[in-house]
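Reply to dn_fold:

You asked what the input looked like. This is it:
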Amino acid sequence: MIKLIASDLDGTIVAKDGTISDRTRQAFLAARESGIQIVFVTGRPFRWLTPIVQAFGGLGTVICSNGALLYDLEQDKVIWSQTLPASTARQAAGIILDHEPRASFAAETTKGLHLGPGFADKHHDFGVQADLDLNNPAIDAEGIVKFLARSPHLAIDDFYAAVAPDLSDLLSVTHSAFDVSLLEMAHVNIHKANTLGEYCRRLGIGAQEVMAFGDMPNDIQMLQFAGSGYAMASGHPQTLACAENIAPPLDKDGVAQVIEGLLK
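and this is what came back:
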């Protein structure tokens, strides 16, 4: 019996235009009405949850920044966060630059986004941000929930393969975007599955009672944790290869189709 549905956002239920279809919205609302807990699990920071708020209002809890932060939509507040020391981010940046001298960096903190030189471009609007200075004590005071590294010319899978082995003992590393070569790093013990597992324990829900959906490598551990883990057919090949179940693609409302089948 499924007691909780965990879903990634972008590429899973959120389309490229930033919207959630009405069919998907109705499927989640029906699941919640039937007594199933809903938790959204995303790489996004809690300030970038507009699609969820527009579609569902205060429905559900959100695991943000790949598991580094737990956010209560109903109460509009941060419940818990696990931050990364600035000293670790500095060490990681040095390792990355050894492999990719043209890399640029950013840090998502509990207070805002800090951008280093060359990180932003005309194709990505990051909204309000501050300059990145990993030697500034204010960074540690805010707490880094996600450290970002961007390559201007390496493909994302090549970028990841080059640096991840040297970073594995220092922090967790993943990626979640098709259109930009962007590494996402957090505290070494943080990933979506760990935080989802802890959230489920608080609710008294076992892994076999969880259904999860995702499309990118940062979702793999979550899909493997869940008793019923579904990779999107439109997702990353690595994610598809690791998943036991495949949901129809996003443009066919794949998540909604699976939930509708569950509720029959």
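The first helix runs from residue 22 to 33.
Hope that clears it up.
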